[in-house]
Amino acid sequence: MKNFWTRTLSATIYALLFVGCIYTKQLTGSLLAGSLIFAAFILFVAEGCTFEFFRLVEKAGARPIKPVGYLLSAIISLSISLSIILFSKDHIDFVALPLIGTLFLATPTLLIAQLWRKSDRPFADTAYTIFPAIYAAFPLGLMAPLNDFYNVMMMVLILVWLNDSCAYMGGSLFGRHKMWPRHSPGKTWEGTAIGVAMTIVVALLVGPLFDTRLQWFDWLVVGIICSVIDTLGDLVESMLKRTVGVKDSGNIMPGHGGLLDRFDSLLIIIPFITLYLIISVN
């Protein structure tokens, strides 16, 4: 239980920082200032996740071109968040063009650069260089348009925390059957079921109080995404860490490890939430 309270305190500090960035527009009374602060927060997390990813894959012998990787993550995250802030959603070409141009040019440019590098795995190193921009920076950038639904984003954070906490406590108390020992030996079916059930119930009961634009069915879908996809996202990051033989991606957050450890589920959840809101609300 000591580890639980350490995780809870660390998660609380993280949540306060995250919530402060989400509601900066309301706190400052300035749409521009709030949006820029939120974009800066997204950039910081994207670069931190990229740093941790490179450190992980280097343990497995990879040699990504790190300066290019950091630049790609910055371009991807900022081209979404700042373009929407500065040019609004009506000018989607300002968002699409930097993204498309970056992704189209990155791969051939990096492959050409590999001709001058003494790498035994040039294609793998190229993939490792690009991957964090797609895996981390892109979904983090999507949080900027999602911030129009800041109360929904707040509820998503609560549901993810609730699912993790209930699954952890439920697994500790009632866990008997391992869910996926290959990637996460600690997860159990009992703990996961408790987490999913509690998350869906809270989404249905509390969600409508946060944002009335979403109907009960919408909150049901949000609850399912935040529970099921949260669990799968955690397993994905566990798979990455087990591949390179480490327990945590970093040590910036006591009890949780690094930024990838904390944002692992959100990186998978955010695209699903964003797509669903685009379809259901608009």
Question: How does this model look, in words?
Answer:
The protein is mainly alpha-helical and 282 residues long. Helix content is 78%, strand content 3%. The protein has eleven helices and two strands, in the order ααααααααββααα. Strands 1-2 form a two-stranded antiparallel ribbon. Strand 1 and strand 2 form a beta hairpin. Helix 8 runs antiparallel to helix 9. The termini are far apart. The model has no long low-confidence stretch (mean pLDDT 82).
How do the strands and helices of this protein lay out in sequence?
Layout: H1 2-22, H2 24-28, H3 31-59, H4 66-87, H5 93-113, H6 122-141, H7 143-146, H8 150-174, E1 178-180, E2 184-188, H9 189-210, H10 216-244, H11 259-281
Antiparallel strand pairs: 1-2
Helix pairs in contact: 1-8, 3-4, 3-6, 4-5, 4-6, 5-6, 6-11, 8-9, 8-10, 9-10, 10-11
Number of strands: 2
Run of helices and strands: HHHHHHHHEEHHH
Q: Helix fraction?
A: over 70%
* Number of separate helices: 11
- Which class best fits the helix and strand makeup? mainly alpha
- Strand line-up in the sheet with most strands: 1-2
- Main β sheet profile: 2 strands, antiparallel
Q: Sum up the overall morphology in one term.
A: globular
Rg over C-alpha atoms, rounded to the nearest angstrom: 19 Å
Taken as a percent bin, the fraction of beta residues is: under 5%
- Indicate the low-confidence ranges by residue numbers: none
Average residue-wise pLDDT: 82
Distance between the termini: 44 Å
